Amino acid sequence: MLFLCRCTDFESRLLRRIFDFTEQIRSGSYICDSYRAVMERWRGRVALVSGASVGIGAAIAVELVRLGMKVVGCARDVGKIQKLAAECQSAGHPGVLVPFKCDLSKEEEILSMFAAIKEQHKGVDVCINNAGLAHPEPLLSGKTSGWKNMMDVNILGLSICTREAYQSMKERNVDDGHIININSMSGHRVLPNATTHFYTATKFAVTALTEGLRQELRAEKTHIRATSISPGLVETEFGPRLFKDDPDKAAGLYSEYKPLEAKDVASSVVYVLSAPPHVQIGDIQMRGTEQVS
């Protein structure tokens, strides 16, 4: 049986608002609009994203541009970032992506990049240390050159970028900056996989460096925040590059279960940046639901 009733104007408006709100929740636009509102304080400000040519770094760079930030994306392959920048412009995103060629294993290139950012954009407000790599070099038989390369990029490059970003914030009296290290679940546990043991050591270092950075920032009486984001398996070019000499292993890496996607990690970066200024998010650990280790 259908009952009809006459609604007052107030009740009609209330029902319409409830209906619209329900539709926003269903479509996800309410969440997006909420993030945009909270992220408004970052609009027009400068973020550096290392390793921005592919995978997680590219996803982070595009998402921050979509939210109105000026993003300096650096990598050795700057051509891919230039393509991303054009796509962002075509999409009408309110921010801008600025490509910059930089080899994070070379300090002189990092310092030159920060000098250029200072000259062209005044400085860095957000530093996202995403660049990282792995070589299948076991502890008992690995090549020293591979170990050094991992240390140069994963530890020293990250630390140099962190130092320079902080100095950039300090000299401009930026007290609400943020330094985010894209870490790994490998920075929290050791898997029985000889090919990744040295890589794992570099990620344990990132865990320690992030907490050390937080403590030093507190000692400086600044409100600049430090966060580590530690994803498990993410479907990017990382795995195929690691196992480039074993195509079968590379092909099967993402077939056992649904891994994380690069956009999932990008969303966690937005979540961290959108936290109220008094909230310090130290570490986010995230895995695909079906991932065991």
Helix-strand layout with pairing:
Layout lengths: L8 H19 L1 H10 L7 E5 L4 H12 L3 E6 L2 H13 L5 E6 L5 H15 L4 E4 L14 H28 L6 E5 L14 H23 L5 E7 L6 H5 L4 H6 L9 H12 L9 E4 L7
Parallel strand pairs: 1-2, 1-4, 2-3, 4-5, 5-6, 6-7
Explained architecture:
It is a single chain. By secondary structure, the chain is α/β, with parallel strands linked by helices. Helices cover 49% and strands 13% of the residues. Helix 3 runs parallel beside helix 4 and helix 5 packs parallel to helix 6. The longest helix has 28 residues. The radius of gyration is 21 Å and the shape is globular. The model has no long low-confidence stretch (mean pLDDT 90).
The major sheet is characterized as: 7 strands, parallel
Shape: globular
Largest beta sheet: strand ordering: 3-2-1-4-5-6-7
Indicate the proportion of strand residues.
5-15%
In terms of structural class, how would the helical and strand content be classed?
alpha/beta
Q: Which regions contain 5 or more consecutive residues with pLDDT less than 50?
A: none
- Give the number of helices: 10
What distance lies between the first and last C-alpha atoms, to the nearest angstrom? 55 Å
Total E-strand runs: 7
Q: Into which percent range does the helicity of residues fall?
A: 40-55%
Radius of gyration (CA) equals 21 Å
Summarize the helix and strand pattern as letters.
HHEHEHEHEHEHEHHHE
Mean pLDDT: 90
